[in-house]
Amino acid sequence: MTQKPSPKGANKSLSPRKQHRASKSAAQDTTEGVNVGRRLRELRAEHDLSIRALAEKSRLAINTLSLIENGKTSPSVSTLQQIAAALDVPITAFFETNTPRARIVYTKAGSRPSANVAHGTLADLGAGMADPAVQPFVITLEPNRGSGANPIVHTGHEFVYCLNGRITYTVEERTYLLEPGDSLLFESHLPHRWQNVDTQQAQAILILYPSDEHDRPTERHFAPTA
Length: 226
Description:
This protein is of the alpha+beta class.
């Protein structure tokens, strides 16, 4: 999420304590309209788990979970994946809000739930849908970042539409260069991987349509790479 630069000298009138609070608040706002710490607390309550029990299941320190829940630290995507696995929920559960589930989802441009991932930013276009069989996202990829050397395999179909920059998709060892306006649709059981091959950010619409409701392709696509 791009933030407008503060006016020159805007923080000079703040006391050191207020400057610390302002800095802490900015650090907490790693998502667009989503409070990951609050969602973690809600999910933990839904599963009737104490913070100690979740720490044991996720193999994370109690202090780490406490800092996340209280908004004092921003978890990495790998940490979120550990927690998601322990709670048996998809990682996208942390992007969801308390908005009632609906059969029609209308999302204004400035209100998409989004979060930082290992490769850039992932904005959820389907948040609030009653039956999230289709998983649509806008992905913003940092320069030269990709899914890694290991191919991704999951159920269903995958669609990608390049908005900005240049992204390569390699499907069954054949590479496709996607430039603005180009798209690719394929059966996602075919081994595939992707990379932003430009020196600037690239952006695309990604639609995942797993045929198995228990499949979690988002986690495979955006897991941290070595």
